[in-house]
């Protein structure tokens, strides 16, 4: 059986060490196939077809994910005995928690929640998030805590693809949901933060994946992260789009 046209043939064999350019190309091939920019929920969002209630559900559930990113990054920091790595990686925690003077990504996402019309306390308390969100987010924290440092870092490489998605999202939100404009600071900051983070992580993974098995584990880690992001949107689509069955205790979206 031949390998898919967009993935290097050697990626599927696991029998030889890929040269750097092929190894990097494999990450991008995974992103093109599996990143959540293709999910129907995001497609509806970018077409302006989500109701305010559906956007509220998305912002509320996504906050739970955002609030756990520093926990995930702290777990990665705890895995490394390299001071230079820790110095570079701890920037991610500050980007999301803030530095005491400037708000971080978590505070900015709370402002997005408020822009949808929900109180920030609802997000802070996790009131109304669907169970699958909780399970998926915990799965991500568990993954980086229990797998190798190489796999944990490789799982962050979804940031290779986020710049394009964020650029599209900001443009379409301003176009279709002008009432959200005041809550878009999170995305504006990530337009510069995410590419910087991805560049460092990719270079580190390329340097430390020294065997075919390690390269495949890095690919598998990225696929796992894509699956986690996709699963969160699957839950939102099922609960709030089609068939529209929010589970017991979940946020009830209005039709407007």
From the structure above, extract its key features:
Heme Oxygenase, Chain A; mainly alpha; 256 residues
Notes on the structure:
The chain is mainly α. The protein has a single domain (19-240), classed as Up-down Bundle (Heme Oxygenase, Chain A). The chain has 11 helices and no strands. The protein has helices spanning 20-34, 40-46, 52-79, 83-97, 105-116, 120-125, 131-146, 149-154, 159-176, 185-208, 212-240. Helix 3 packs antiparallel against helix 4 (83-97), helix 3 (52-79) runs parallel beside helix 7 (131-146) and helix 3 (52-79) packs antiparallel against helix 11 (212-240). It starts with 19 loop residues before the first helix and ends in a 16-residue tail after the last helix. Mean pLDDT is 94; it is low at 1-5.
How far do the termini sit from each other? 50 Å
Radius of gyration equals 19 Å
Domain count: 1
Query: How large a portion of the residues is in β-strands, by DSSP E?
Result: under 5%
Topology pattern, helix = H, strand = E: HHHHHHHHHHH
Beta-strand segment tally: 0
CATH topology: Heme Oxygenase, Chain A
Class by helix and strand content?
Answer: mainly alpha
Largest β-sheet summary: none
CATH architecture term: Up-down Bundle
At the first level of CATH, what is the class?
A: Mainly Alpha
CATH homologous superfamily designation: Heme oxygenase-like
Low-confidence stretches: 1-5
Helix tally equals 11
Q: What is the global morphology? A: globular
Helical percentage: 55-70%
| Average predicted confidence as pLDDT | 94
SSE layout and pairings?
Blueprint: H1 20-34, H2 40-46, H3 52-79, H4 83-97, H5 105-116, H6 120-125, H7 131-146, H8 149-154, H9 159-176, H10 185-208, H11 212-240
Helix pairs in contact: 1-11, 3-4, 3-5, 3-7, 3-11, 5-10, 7-11, 9-10
């Amino acid at each position: 059986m031949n390998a898919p046209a967009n993935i290097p043939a050697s990626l599927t064999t696991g029998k030889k060490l890929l040269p750097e350019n092929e190894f990097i190309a494999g990450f991008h091939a995974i992103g093109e196939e599996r990143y959540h920019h293709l999910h129907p929920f995001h497609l509806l969002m970018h077409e302006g077809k989500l109701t305010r209630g559906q956007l509220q559900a998305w912002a509320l559930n996504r906050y739970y994910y955002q609030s756990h990113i520093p926990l995930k990054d702290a777990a990665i920091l705890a895995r490394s005995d390299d001071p230079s790595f820790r110095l570079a990686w701890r920037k991610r925690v500050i980007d999301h928690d803030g530095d005491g003077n400037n708000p971080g990504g978590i505070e900015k996402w709370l402002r997005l929640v408020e822009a949808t019309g929900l109180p920030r306390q609802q997000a802070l308390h996790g009131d109304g998030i669907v169970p699958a969100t909780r399970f998926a987010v915990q799965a991500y924290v568990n993954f980086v805590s229990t797998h190798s440092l190489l796999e944990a870092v490789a799982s962050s490489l979804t940031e290779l693809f986020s710049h394009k998605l964020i650029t599209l999202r900001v443009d379409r939100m301003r176009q279709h949901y002008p009432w959200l404009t005041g809550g878009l600071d999170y995305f504006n900051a990530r337009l510069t933060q995410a590419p910087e983070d991805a560049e460092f992580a990719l270079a580190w993974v390329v340097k430390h994946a020294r065997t075919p098995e390690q390269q495949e584990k890095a690919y598998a880690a990225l696929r796992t992260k894509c699956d986690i992001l996709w699963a969160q949107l699957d839950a939102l689509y099922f609960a709030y789009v089609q068939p529209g069955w929010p589970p017991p205790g979940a946020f009830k979206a209005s039709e407007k």
